[in-house]
Amino acid sequence: MLSQVCSSGSQPFRQRLLPWVQSTALSRSRATDRVQPSAIRHVRSWSNIPFITVPLSRTHGKSFAHRSELKHAKRIVVKLGSAVVTRGDECGLALGRLASIVEQVSVLQNQGREMMLVTSGAVAFGKQRLRHEILLSQSVRQALHSGQNQLKEMAIPVLEARACAAAGQSGLMALYEAMFTQYSICAAQILVTNLDFHDEQKRRNLNGTLHELLRMNIVPIVNTNDAVVPPAEPNSDLQGVNVISVKDNDSLAARLAVEMKTDLLIVLSDVEGLFDSPPGSDDAKLIDIFYPGDQQSVTFGTKSRVGMGGMEAKVKAALWALQGGTSVVIANGTHPKVSGHVITDIVEGKKVGTFFSEVKPAGPTVEQQGEMARSGGRMLATLEPEQRAEIIHHLADLLTDQRDEILLANKKDLEEAEGRLAAPLLKRLSLSTSKLNSLAIGLRQIAASSQDSVGRVLRRTRIAKNLELEQVAVPIGVLLVIFESRPDCLPQVAALAIASGNGLLLKGGKEATHSNRILHLLAQEALSIHGVKEAIQLVNTREEVEDLCRLDKMIDLIIPRGSSQLVRDIQKAAKGIPVMGHSEGICHMYVDSEASVDKVTRLVRDSKCEYPAACNALETLLIHRDLLRTPLFDQIIDMLRVEQVKIHAGPKFASYLTFSPSEVKSLRTEYGDLELCIEVVDSVQEAIDHIHKYGSSHTDVIVTENEKTAEFFLQHVDSACVFWNASTRFSDGYRFGLGAEVGISTSRIHARGPVGLEGLLTTKWLLRGQDHVVSDFSEHGSLKYLHENLPVPQRNTN
User: Over the stretch 546-560, which tens digit does the pLDDT of each residue have?
Assistant: First the structure.
């Protein structure tokens, strides 16, 4: 075993740098040897990736059962495959990728974790150096021999790998040292061979060296000593768990991980992970979680363009490490869009690559649930409208018949949430008999409207003789609805999905676990009367919302129901999947100079105080300047004081007052509580301008008795819902007569405002002909386009 601590290709540079690095590493190691649970969290910014020092402690024994537990990993080995470290031409290193990897390892190291690297790259680095030397030598000899400046084409001999490794080791380590130094981290190189693990004394020496380096907060960089390593042998010894030969860096990483009792082994390669068929084939699907015994479900392709191992060797090494108590993730370290954060994403528990686990979940994976929702939704869409309506009626009956069981489950949620959730969220979480009765009424409205939805003919055109075109309404596909603290949302959305023939994935907040579970069981019971039970799935796994938003091959539309922060996070995380919703509900009410005294206080009270946590609650009250210091204004303020509404003064309003309420921090604020911003405007046009600048295009209201002013406001305010002399709280699917809504959309494509049944449908075109070809309609063809509009058949909804 050869050990070089803080080696460098430049001796003078090394002599200048080493004492400082060693003293820095030693002083830092004493301060951060073990992060105690009571340690104070603090943020550092030594790189452009912020990181937090967190308490980490775990007794090594069993591997982690779920990805979400990976954030507790204390000791981590990162294995860098040859394809990750080398350039595409296999001569030289991919410096950009390498720098990104070093930065991520440094971030984790500075969080208090113990990081180790198993790296390839010495052969490629050496090959680059030797090729340069050979070319330089040949060019000099040819110039001397020919006496001319024109050099003949030179052939480069095949370079022996051991010689390349010998030439590249020092340069590779110098590069790592220079990169880690940027983050005030010292690195140490350790070269090993198979004998170092099989000789008991050498194995103890190696183990002691690694532990001492980790104790001093130094990152060990381990590699097989390819300058002296013997030729590769068959993997016969990988069948057991007691021994594994070091033939390549995959087996080295596994052996090192088990030997050092590491919590996590990250294997970076040039593929996303394991696939159920060769990557790149049409049917290839990434395996999210791989379990021992699943080898028969995997087809191994050829190994990567460089390196000694292939995917089969990686899997065998990973399974060996897993049985030794180390969790393993195999992921892509070369993709330019993810390589900059792949390691930190894995440690944060995000769904990256293939996670090896010994614990199989009791239920289906979310991918399997997506497939079930897809196939179940297609079967649901083929049912007759009467059958879909019958399912919804049955669900409405179950909500009232099973009322006691539902309320008992909801009581459990409320008891567990007590003290953890704010009062407005507890109110959203709570179910009652009246709420269930209202839900049942709304579901029956949806059932009635579903009679004329899926399959409805929207347009008919006679293209030519015996060639007729129809545009019909069809389901969107599979919907993912994510909702917080709102169990009553589940039956509403389920009914709308049934009526529109869509498959449905539901992800509820953990605070409503018991309520959601029983409501989902009732939805499936209703679906089962026509054999489509699997069309609606409740995601109960530990899937993060961000991971669900990446399932673009299974989900056609995401509908978030919850806080503005939730909506923003989903809009940011969704990759290739449209998101329907609104990020904020900043609703305005403009009180015109010709407003009725009797109407204003009723409208303001209902809009702000009836349910302040709702997205359609009033947040900003705009008052015409002429109303200041009038009885109407005094009545508004008195009413708000009685209702205990905290007032925030806008800049103009504050300027009119000697002693004003607290000035608003931002005019673009959704309070979601008994708080209200009041601002003064000079005209209806100024009110409209204010709404366009600070509003969220949700719901805005004018209070006035002047019809001309009202119509001007209605036509010029560009929001999803614009009202005249009506509360903002009317912006709701149930109140609009839609039965229910999946949410309120402020987008300008497809659906806007409260989204009911119609918003969950799209269209397709049906063309019926008799041996028609386009060439018949050419200039010299026998047919002419007619393009006649035909009457649309009216479906009987009785």
Answer: 888 888 889 999 998
